[in-house]
Amino acid sequence: MCQEGWLRFGQTLFEKSRDGRGSCSLPELDVEAVEPESVIPSNLLRQKPAEMPELSEPEIVRHFVGLSVTNHHVDRDLYPLGSCTMKYNPKVCEDVANLAGFVAIHPFSPPETIQGALRLMYELGQALCEITGMDDFTLAPAAGAHGEFTGMLMVRAYHEAKGNPRSKVLIPDSAHGTNPASVTIAGYRAVEIPSDSTGRIDVERLKAHLDQEVAALMVTNPNTLGFFETNIAEVADLIHGVGGLVYMDGANMNALLGISRPGDFGIDIAHLNLHKTFGTPHGGGGPGSGPLVVKKALSPFLPVPVIVKEGEKYRLEEDRPQSIGRIHGFYGNFGVMVKAYCYILLAGPEGLREIAECATINANYLLAKLRRYFEVPYDGFCKHEFVLSGKDKAAKGVKTLDIAKRLMDFGFHPPTIYFPLIVEEALMIEPTESENLETLDRFVEAMVCINEEIERDPEKVKSAPHTTPVGRVDEANAARGLDVAG
User: pTM here?
Assistant: First the structure.
């Protein structure tokens, strides 16, 4: 079919695909027949039909259901990956994002034909600004790290507009691992700031690095140890004192919703993970979305296009002389935005605060239960996550990796391990607000049981997992001999 034929096909499908209930039905189309040889080189065509098995519908359904249960996902049981917020994603948000009026939008649609979508994006951005205490936003970044990189480009543009380009960005050692990478590819030198004995920024060590070359501080708050940076206002004042900006990695915003706003404690720019905090599947469920929220002084540098509201109409503005330019093919991952918008409306202000409170309660409950069985390198009241260490199990020849693999035999996904790097043999656990008391207690029982096994039968832990479809693999050979084709 020629290009014109495909355009006619798409236009007809779009016009006829709604049956009044939002569902789609294929219209009867009068399109010209086409021979495969006319559009596909003959050497790429099959010489005989593909040998496909003839299967009934129940066989096919059971095959894929069987595959699904060999994977672990949050719909099966607890998924306590620290700093990843693998929480329950309301199915109603998925349903809304699948409405025909959303999924049928073409990225080249004229603004006057997608006013509803533009309104949704604009109101989502306004909600994120209100939640974080910021002034302006862009929804374009496609992931958290993409948001970080975009933010660093804006930081560079801000300083260059002042005629004062700078060379370095300060990053606490308790930050997310993508932070130094984002800073480096944006052309800055990353300078690590150590934590103090409480697991927070060492303010005195920070002061030693303050000069006119500091473009920004990139801080994760709460940090990867699970602690709120209680001195963040003082730290922000110090950075501002040398003309720098404060960037917050907001991937852990799940702990702050409705309680504390970054814009109120000195943050100039932050990214949020819609695919973590705001109810969209994370990881394999993707795609992601990492919007930026900024203070007014950074608005001129936002990437284009920018959503603008004029009266009751919305448009995408491209003419922004100081903008860093376009950072996405179109305007971000729209389906993720729909789910986040739905999630925020479902929760409301009180619900968002309850989310953060329950996440914090759940984390501290687990920490209190597990403290006597595992080493806690940085102890104290945590926020949404906490970090244990398997260092003290070394006497039995057991590593954190072994504990994580053994946990799979109990039906739980392992927590994040070996991160943050400042904790030896780290186990980073985030229960989220989604889990009930019964689930948390089952997780505690499993961890206690593993601890007992380490004492009386360490080989059982070291050879785990025993009940999963794939057993213990040779980690060294798997890393060195990566087989991406298999």
Answer: 0.86
